[in-house]
């Protein structure tokens, strides 16, 4: 495989199926943000180096794998697919959300993203997933998008938020509470 093809030298890239779009097209922006999120997850996994964190590495790697499917679906302009993201992909990660949410203290105020370096990396991935979701919604308003892909992005950002907090809790690092936040969660 050649890394450079010169096909993008005029500012366009190929979608699944062969059609070409400008690199700032809504569709390219959406799957590009998903790709960024996956890269940040890879970084986060590399920071989870303790044996007792294997479950976290496994979960984040599974999300990374599914994000690749989501990205492929966003790169596919055909309204009838074929698509890779299963209809129940979002529902499949909800048990993990419950599991990891229970590992961190209850949230009553807004918290700042950060803490332990591994948690901070997951927080970054979470915000990039949220951006990818916003880009996918913009695309959805203009073209047909595989709905399970958008649902997955929404749920994945929830998962990453609670995983980041669970990492902080496991590593003995307190979340940083936003000092100007009243109690907003009950």
Overview of this structure, please?
The protein has a single domain, classed as Hypothetical Protein Ta1238, Chain: A (Up-down Bundle). It has a two-stranded antiparallel sheet with strand order 1-2. Strands 3-4 form a two-stranded antiparallel sheet. The mean pLDDT is 94. The chain contains five helices and four strands; from the N terminus they run ββαααβααβ. β1 and β2 form a beta hairpin. The N and C termini lie far apart (54 Å). It is mainly alpha-helical.
Q: Which ranges are low-confidence, i.e. pLDDT below 50, for 5 or more consecutive residues?
A: none
What proportion of the residues form beta strands (DSSP E)?
Answer: 5-15%
Determine the structural class based on helices, strands and strand pairing.
Answer: mainly alpha
CATH third-level topology: Hypothetical Protein Ta1238, Chain: A
Distance between the termini: 54 Å
